[in-house]
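Take one protein record:
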Amino acid sequence: MTSKQLRVILLGSPGAGKGTQAELLAAAAGVPHISTGDMFRHAVTAGSAVGLAAASFMERGELVPDDVTIGVVEERLRISDARRGFVMDGFPRTAQQATAFDALLAKLGWKLDAAIEFAVPRIELLRRLTARWTCPSCGVTYNLDSARPRVPGICDRCASALVQRADDSEATVAIRLDVYERQTAPLLAYYRGAGSLITVDGTQSVEAVHGAVMRGLASCVEAPAS
């Protein structure tokens, strides 16, 4: 593990594996894994003002408006555990958000180390997402193709019944991927132009993808030991 601060964002379509890789990298670096998706889902469940604002967009598989999203991110980054760094999962999603995020980091006196893209073909993303089931109690995610629970339909961790989120239905998955391709793909050009983009083949095993991430980071920052 390194003492150097590490501030990275992870890019990729829904189902590309950002969450899993974010947890691995955050643990290695000793910084928080910040998932805007988890924050919004918590806000929706709690019935907060942010949740009410975001709920209708999330239910349709659409992006939450920038003013809501950026406000949530800034609030999270001001919590003390993010001072040493972060692994950002799910934000920014548009070039406009990226510009606002750069401005926010500058205001905080910080700089982004890298943007890591997980490249996965659309047909594979569809297969992964429609096979995904989640524990409503502890949040663990399973995939019926690659990460099955030990007992079908039951969470390994807390024994709750697994559910399929409405946004993992085939119709909604297609909408989510279309939204990503239309609105989020320009981020690749944005970060490529900034010289901070690292692209990783996301079709490999979890371990192989993590290794590729670490090697990519080693080429541009003092990465944490794997």
User: Anything to note?
Assistant: The chain has one domain: 6-218.
